[in-house]
Amino acid sequence: MIVESNVEIPSYDHAGLVSRLGGRAYIERPSSHPAIAKVWTCRGPLENGIAHRVLPDACIEIVLDVAAPEHPYVVGPSTRAYTVPLAASAEIVGVRLRVGACIPVLATHAWTLRDTFQPWPLTLTYPRGASAEECAHCLEGWVGHREPSEVDKLTDAVLRANGSVASAASSLGLGERRFRRAFANDIGLGPKRFWRIQRLWSAMALKRDSPDLAWGEIAAESGFADHAHLDREFLTLTNGTPSDWFREFTA
Question: Which residues span the domain enclosing 128?
């Protein structure tokens, strides 16, 4: 089972900065702005000094702490899992950009943000004592109605080709080098890594929806060679096992 691309990258338990908080304190909504996939807020109280593990994904997000909205960050597409410290009672706001929105919104190629979490100065004025929703509206206003680049043909091609870059490029009449460059510029990941991450999220979504399904069956349904192959990909991409992830997800 390969996840079909419709430009917005799937976020099964939530992609980006807060990929999992035990299902609590996280709220998201759609946006009318074409370059924004979702607007979300994450609220405490949380365990003091929690180190939150973020799973790899192809999302780019602009995030800020409501207590200090003048210091936003940009979270780039990630090729591996990493941890982010969250303070107790933290209130975080974010906008998740659509694939292809990096260049028109942030004026940089997506690959320059790969595996980064960095301060990103924005010219924004927030109301004094702004609420989370007011901060979110300010971020949406800053993004404006910029149109994302048309990249669905790139993601669709690599998903249809089951990760074969040569086949994906050929299907679009492109050479491999040009295809890789376009993919990195607009999406931030290499096409093969993108496909591997999508396949992993597909397996996690299947386990979420069918918790009694054995991992071996999930591996077969999600396009892995066998259970051992699924285990190796989990270890490479998340620094853990499938059982580790599911235990965290259901905690």
Answer: 26-143
Specify the pTM: 0.80
Task: Taking residues 156-175, report their average pLDDT.
Answer: 94
Number of domains in the chain: 1
Q: What is the mean pLDDT of residues 122-144?
A: 89
Specify if 70 maps to a domain. yes
Number of H helices, E strands in the chain: 9, 8
Mean pLDDT of 52-76: 88
Q: Which helix (H) or strand (E) holds 42?
A: strand 36-43
| Tokens 């607007």 sit on residue | 39
Chain-centre distance for alpha carbon 172: 25
Q: Which of 224, 205, 159, 198 is nearest to 9 (CA)?
A: 198
Report angle CA 222, 225, 227 to the nearest 5 degrees. 80
Find residue 118's DSSP bridge partners: 74
Any domain includes 134: yes
The tokens describing 62, both together, are 């602009």
Domain assignment of residue 67, yes or no: yes
